[in-house]
Design brief:
mainly alpha; two-stranded antiparallel sheet; 2 strands; globular
């Protein structure tokens, strides 16, 4: 493609559709943290494994996967059972865990909060379902903000709050949007798990990070320079023009182009 050639909107769509086909297949799983929830078959195990893996999904991908596997090991590879039946002694085995700025203090609180969510709020899917009756493309981002309130309703250290992003604070909430893609999208391609039935894929937002943001800008899908909530809204609007029912399938294309092709 010549550097001075400007693609038409239709050409961009066809180009991205082609890249979705290239990357949205089981080969993608080998190098991605989504492999962690794929280790499990019970709904609650998949949710918790996915949520914790997505929470630490920043930095070196091999290190993310290594530490996410360690998280599962520390929970005896039965995450839901560990969350629901752990004792204070069980939590002590988490004490040496660290992934960048996420440490055992945060991990302990996450386990405690997840137990509260499954005990008193009908589980992760039910909490994220809040707000889906709003006829608004940003309804899912509202749900993420509400989720953060529920997640931190127990006593906790303020430091732990930084590990859950808030769209109302203009965050792109990349890791939670990625987790939601994993849980909600179902297209039988074998990558996204699609175990949540109450939320429509049409409500999802692209997990916006440095890779997808840079590719989106080069393609003219994003003008805003920061990867924040306003940028996410802009990118969402453009991706919904390509596929209003499943806009976040283009995450495979944008991420793949950035990470694997250096686009």
């Amino acid at each position: 493609m010549a550097s001075n050639y400007i693609m038409t909107t239709n050409e961009i769509k066809l180009f991205l559709d082609e890249k979705v086909e290239l990357y949205n297949n089981p080969n993608f799983i080998e190098s991605d943290p989504i492999q962690i929830p794929h280790l499990f078959s019970q709904k609650e195990d998949i949710e918790i494994a996915g949520f914790l893996s997505a929470t630490i999904a920043w930095g070196n991908r091999k290190m993310i996967i290594k530490n996410a596997i360690r998280m599962m090991d520390l929970m005896g590879n039965t995450p839901y059972d560990f969350v629901m039946s752990h004792t204070e002694n069980d939590l002590e085995r988490l004490d040496n865990f660290v992934h960048r700025t996420y440490n055992s203090i945060d991990f302990r609180y996450f386990i405690t909060s997840l137990k509260n969510i499954y005990t008193n709020h009908k589980g992760l899917e039910a909490v994220f379902y809040y707000g889906q009756s709003i006829n608004d493309s940003r309804a899912m981002q509202t749900s993420i903000s509400e989720f953060k309130k529920v997640f931190f309703e127990l006593p906790h250290l303020t430091r732990t709050e930084k590990h859950i992003s808030d769209p109302k604070a203009n965050s792109a909430a990349k890791r939670i949007n990625m987790f939601l893609r994993w849980m909600v999208r179902k297209d039988n391609k074998g990558v996204d798990l699609g175990i949540w039935k109450s939320i429509s894929p049409s409500q999802l937002s692209c997990p916006l990070d440095v890779h997808s943001g840079n590719v989106a800008r080069k393609l003219g899908l994003l003008q805003r320079t920061q990867n924040d909530g306003k940028a996410l809204s802009e990118l969402d609007s453009n991706l919904r023009l390509f596929d209003s029912k499943d806009p976040v399938k283009y995450d495979f294309a944008l991420f793949g182009l950035g990470v694997f092709e250096g686009f």
